[in-house]
Write a structure and sequence with these properties.
homodimer; 219 residues; elongated; DNA-binding
DNA sequence: TCTCTTTTGAGAGCAGTGCTCTCGCTCTGG
DNA sequence: CCAGAGCGAGAGCACTGCTCTCAAAAGAGA
């Protein structure tokens, strides 16, 4: 039942726009609006559930894409696969992407349960980075060292994501990560309208350039 | 009068959250909701006006920040100033930033009038790039050439923004641009909660790294 | 099989929303 | 001085999230 409501909500989200209505969901299910409240205490709670699902779906997409590359030593290939997987999921479910990477909903405060699913994609990236580092193929030449102020927290992130890499490399990884999500947001939110038409090729270029920026190579 | 309504809307946006209510604006102005419709045909039209203002405010912030650097040959300094200026505006008016760089509102279709103000910041960046290129201080060594498919459109953007630079450099500029806005979005939308606390320092690091990535130097 | 309890949906209703319409008041130009 | 334009008030429509009560349905224990 809960799943049915969420499905209806997703459907409505997909074809209606961002603001979904409990009453419309109920209408679609031939129910009365108050019945929904048996399963979700409020609209926010439904939204939270959808957000959590979206995080997990994106995380799973990233994980599967990363795992699909046979040659585990092909770090560039793995990186590109994850990057493509993330974009594929985002373009396939743009509204769910907007739910988690768009402007936050007004009163909504992210519960603690969302932080673990939300970092699944960056964990995948971290594993690639770690493997590349272990294989001694992560060049750190000419890399810019962050100011001391940032080092402890970068080290903490690295310890969780890719224990072997330095703070400077971790910083670059976060930057590359930020760039990719910025690119997806720009694309989905229509920032490139009438500017770049082949958005897939443009994203591919960005992913490759960011991989080079990180020093990831094919072998 | 129109300005008064927009001011009230902005105020309400700032302290209320994303969804502003015409009736609440009217209430604040001791008016009745229907009176607002004398000045704005719909809520969307008000929103559009606010979006346009936000674009122009951000553009002006970027332009002023860029112009504030005396030494026009200090390309790194100019880049950093613009980057800081953009972030300063965004953190000062997060809701207006969300209006233009967050998830798009459902039925809203950006009118043609918004595209010119919306690219003002990237025009500022283009000028820096162009100056650096003219001064012969823009290294293109080891730069990744985009696939042929992308070249025409990149050339077109370059022709408008920074006529002298190559497609490959233009691509990097767009990537750096994307990264910076991704960073601001991540910060404002709370993606770094409990991860990085000194967000100003982190942004500064990113801006510097992106400048290096572009090859911008101080002299 | 017959109770008793829990679960579930329906319906009415409240306060709020965007928006439309009509009706008067006020202010201004000729 | 007075017609016409501009403006705000008020009522009203269809919609929203949400709360409440009440009656069926389902399940469990004897």
């Amino acid at each position: 039942m809960i799943d049915e409501i969420k499905d209806a909500a997703r459907r409505q989200l997909a074809e209606g726009g961002a603001n979904l209505s409990l009453r419309a969901i109920a209408r679609e299910m031939n129910m009365v609006s108050s019945a929904i409240y048996r399963y979700f205490a409020s609209r926010d709670e439904l939204l939270t559930a959808l957000i959590l699902d979206a995080y997990n779906a994106l995380g799973e997409a990233a994980e599967q894409a990363g795992a699909s590359v046979r040659d585990r030593d092909d770090h560039l290939g793995r990186w590109l696969a994850v990057a493509r997987g993330v974009r594929a999921w985002a373009t396939a479910s743009p509204h769910e992407y907007a739910l988690i990477y768009g402007s936050p909903v007004p009163g909504y405060e992210a519960p603690q349960d969302t932080v673990e699913p939300s970092i699944r994609p960056v964990v995948v990236l971290g594993a690639i980075l770690e493997d590349a580092h272990d294989a001694g193929r992560l060049t750190t030449k000419g890399i810019q060292r962050p100011v001391p102020d940032l080092l402890p927290e970068l080290a903490q992130i690295a310890a969780y994501i890719a224990p072997g890499v330095s703070e400077a490399v971790m910083a670059r990884a976060l930057i590359a990560w930020t760039e990719l999500f910025g690119a997806i947001s720009f694309e989905l939110f229509g920032r490139f309208k009438n500017t770049i038409t082949d958005l897939a090729a443009w994203y591919e270029h960005q992913a490759r350039d960011m991989a080079a920026y990180l020093g990831l190579t094919a072998r």
